[in-house]
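README: folding subset

This subset contains proteins for which both the sequence and a predicted structure token string are available. Records are stored as plain text. Below is the entry for Rhamnulokinase (498 residues), shown exactly as it appears on disk.
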Amino acid sequence: MLGKQMLAADYGASGGRVMLGSFDGEKISLGEMHRFANEPVILNGKDRSTMYWDFLRLFHELKTGITRAGIMQGRSGADISSIGVDTWGVDYGLLGRDGMLLSSPVHYRDSRTEGMLKKAFSRMDRERLYEITGSQFMEINTAFQLMAEQEYREELLEQAESMLLMPDLFSYFLSGEMGSEYTIASTTQMLDAVKKDWSGEVLEGLGLPSRILKPVLMPGTRLGSLRDEICRELGIGPMDVIAVAGHDTQSAMAAVPAETDDFLFLSCGTWSLFGTELDVPQIDGRSFACNMTNEGGCGGKTSFLKNIIGLWLIQESRRQWMREGCEYSFGHLESMARDAAPFVSFIDPDAPEFVPSGNIPRRIREFCRRTGQKVPERVGEVVRCIDESLALKYRMVLDEICACTGRSYQAVHLVGGGAQSALLCQMTANACGIPVIAGPVEATVYGNLAMQLVAAGEVKDLKEVRSIIRNSENMKVYEPQDAELWQEAYGQYRAFVR
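--- output ---
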């Protein structure tokens, strides 16, 4: 690789990777340094079990990736100028006065937040909470996790000197500097969407401590340098630690290769995030009724979107079949789904029973049985049910976005791991009735690296970023097919999903 060298650490809800990026002035080239699984750990306590992120292991994996990059750096003689970290949203770590973790971060799929939405609305008016934050109500959001913290681990919260969201936590242990990057802070339901800062009214209304929160930083901010101790430990040269768009969705959003201002994006991984980009937040009665979220983006933009359970349904189903002794590749699952009969049964991907880990195929069958549909028994039937239901849910959210914004859209840019599924891409084009432009698969990594270039002053703005991404990747276009069949299926789907 030639040109400016940077590292991107990208943590998804099911896996992570450290990638080396090289910028030659026109395009970014990628090289994989390290890839690893991200598996939660469940510990059984005295009264209840808790699902944790294995943060110590995840930080070790980050160091492994940096070490491998350092070895390549030594061979090539090229210096690595910077590193940035992006992760999934809403989760956090609590630190004591000594700057060390008080506990492993709790996983958003832990059951402790059950009932917290209801409790929150007893403390603060629901519409007022949405009016300030513009955030989709989900029990996993940070605000409701902190309420659960008060209920289950109050003594830990009292000991806490600082709370850092996951990308900020990794960046702190790399650099020694604390901050709250804007895009990840906007996933908490504690940020004022207009002022782009923590909302004192929300914190007071929900009874949450403001003392543990750190100042909000815009993406593209230099936090500091890699700690000297880490450089010596890993045999790596000094590099800047950059607060990139810490929420992986917003790193992916920055890398959407759109050429126009009005576009739809679908960041498709463990979660699906479907939306559009706006200049200012859209917070009104219609967006409230549709439970849309206004997430902070790069370049002062707002991502107007909805969170949808995504490939988690496939991933967790595959894990269940592996527990039963059947190891299917994702390609084999897609092949079986392609051969299964279409439009036999549907689910609501966002039904609460699909959030926890466990036997997803059994829960799908129970959903279909309860709603009077044919029950999918074979593996291919289950996977087809998931894929069709996701595509039709995307269509449903598309209708909501169009109703909220008053705009029409000519295509969907589908980025992330879902771009590798030709079946899901085609189904999404069919369901939405507009072309799907698939790619890049590594959108989060590209966006992470691009914001490092912005921080270094080598790239001016989002428009230039997206031009670089178009130069760096080839996208595939899926044209809609079978319009009448999919419109009929959508009508059937709406009977089961409100």
